[in-house]
Amino acid sequence: MKKLINSPENVVREALEGIALAHADRVRVSLDPFYIVRKDAPVKGKVGLVSGGGSGHEPMHGGFVGLGMLDAACPGHVFTSPTPDQMFEASKAANGGAGILHIVKNYTGDVMNFDLAADMLREEKIDVASVLTDDDVAVQDSLWTAGRRGVGLTVLMEKLLGAAAEKGADLANLKTLGDSIRATGRSMGLALTSCTVPHAGKPSFELGENEMELGIGIHGEPGRKRVPIAPADEIAEMLMEPVLSDLPFKHGDNIILFVNGMGGTPLIELYIIYRKAAEIAGKHGLKIVRNLVGSYITSLEMAGTSITALRADDNLISLWDAPVNTPALRWGV
Amino acid sequence: MKKLINSPENVVREALEGIALAHADRVRVSLDPFYIVRKDAPVKGKVGLVSGGGSGHEPMHGGFVGLGMLDAACPGHVFTSPTPDQMFEASKAANGGAGILHIVKNYTGDVMNFDLAADMLREEKIDVASVLTDDDVAVQDSLWTAGRRGVGLTVLMEKLLGAAAEKGADLANLKTLGDSIRATGRSMGLALTSCTVPHAGKPSFELGENEMELGIGIHGEPGRKRVPIAPADEIAEMLMEPVLSDLPFKHGDNIILFVNGMGGTPLIELYIIYRKAAEIAGKHGLKIVRNLVGSYITSLEMAGTSITALRADDNLISLWDAPVNTPALRWGV
Fold it and tell me: What is the pTM of this model?
C-alpha cells in the first residue's frame, strides 16, 4: 500500500485538519464529531443543506461546502457511513431557522443514519426533509444497497439545490426540486484498477492486467460484469448507452454531462472519454448545455471513470450558472 | 498498460478534441498544428501570454488558457516538446499587437524550440520576450536540462502574469515581474509510483513496493535519491526543508503554498500533506497568504506530490485574487 498518509486510523482527521488550514476563508471544521460547515453558518433564514457519507470520495462532500452549495458535510471513516450524531451536529450547525435538507446517497448505512438524525432534529423542533440519489443504472440491488446506488448525480444535485437554497427556495420547494433532479439523472461507472482502503491495507478486489469492471460502485462493489479492457471510445459507449436508454433521454433533450474521474485517472484520459460521450449524446439528438469534467466523486486511487447525464431545463441551467464558492467548485465569486 | 485511450498515437489529438467540445465557451482548439487559444484571441492591445510543453501534465498548460491566464498553449506529444512551428502559430493567434511573452519551463527541447519560435516571430516584426521557470531544487542538471527543471512554479507564474497582462502590463513589465517570480519560487516533488508513457507501453522506471523517489522530475526523471517509503509527515518535511532552505525563505515572509498531486494521487492524501506543510511553514515563521491544493501539473497517472512555495507581496496577492476563467482554474467570473 503506497499512500501519502501517516496511519490508517488518522487519515480522515488529518485530511480534515488540512482542509481547515487550506480553506479557512470558506469553511470551519469540527473534529469532534467530524463535520465541515460553511464559515458563515448558520445563514439566517436559509434552508441548511447537509450531506455526508464515507470518506474516500474527495472532494465529495467536504469540498462542496460553501456559498451556493452545501452548508455542511459529515465525513465518515473511509467507505463507512457517518454516525447519526455527526449528522445531527452538522445539521444543527447549519440550521438558520428555515429547516434542514439532507442529501443522501442511497446506501443502507447512510439512509438509516440520516433517518435517525432527522428524528433527533425533529425532537428539537427543526424541520427536516431529505432527498435521495440513486442514479447508478449499473445494478438494481447491491452489496450495500436496497435499490440503486447514489453516485455522480449527487455532485450535480448539491450544486443545483445549493444554488436554489441560496436564492431563497423553501424546504418544500427544495425537496420537490431535488426529487425531480433525482428522477431525471442517470450514471454509470467503470474501473480499470481497484483501490486500497487504508485500514485494510490491500486492494478491495482484484482485476487482471487485461480486465476492467463495468458498472463498478464507488466503494469497489461489483458492477454488471468483468470484461476485457477496451478502447476509450468503446468504454464511453458501454457507459453512455445504459445511461441514456434507462431514463430514457429523448431526442431534443438538453442535458448536463458530467465525466468524472475515479481518483487515479489523469485528466487527459477524461477528455478522451468526454470527446466520445459528447459524440454519442449528439447522435441521440441530445444537446449538452453544460458540462463538468474532472475527479469530483472518487474512490480513493481507483483508475476509472463514470458518466452522469441530467436532463436540464432553463431553471437548472440558471442554477448551475449561479455563483459557487467551495474548495472544489468555484465560479462567479 | 491500463488507460482510457484509443491508441497511443491519438492520445493528444483526441484529448484536444475533448477539450474543444467541453470548453468551447472559453477556448478554441487548432489541430494542425496543435494549439489551444482563448476564444476571444487575439485581445487587441494586450500582451499575448503563450506557454507549452509536452503533454501528460494536464491540466497544464491547455487547462490554463482563458481570461486572466494564458492566451495560448501548445501541447507536444506526451513528454515531448512542441515544435517551433506550433509555438509560432500559437503566438500569432495570441498576438494582439502588444507583443508576446513565452513562459518556458527549463527543459532543453522547450528552451531551444521557444527560442526558434521567437526568432520566427521577430522576423514578422512581433516583439517577443520570454520568462523561464527553473524552480525544482531537487537536482542541478538533469537528464533533460542544463540547470534546474521547471515544475510547479509554472502554474503560479501563469496565473500571476496572466492577471498582470489582463490589467494592461506591457511586455517589459511582464518580463520583469516574471523574472522576479522565477527568483522567489522553489519546488520539489516525490513519486510513490512510476507512470507509463502511452507509446512506450511500460512504466518509465521501476520502484520497489517499499520505495519512493525523492526529487522526481515530472517526466519521471531521476531525483535526488530513492528512499524507503515514509509517513506523510516525513514526506512533507523531506520536500519542505529543501524548498524553504534553498531560497532561503525568511522569517516573516508571506508565501503562496501549492501542494500538487502528480495525477494518480487522490485529493484526500494531498490535504494530509498540506496539513504538515502548513505546520512546517508556520515553524519557519512564514505566513501562508494564499494556497492551491490539487493536481495541476501532473505526470500522467504517477502517484506522488510536489510542493511549491513562492514569496508573495501585496501585488502578487492581488494578482492571485484577480478573476480567472480557464477550464482548470476559475474564480471571480
Answer: 0.98
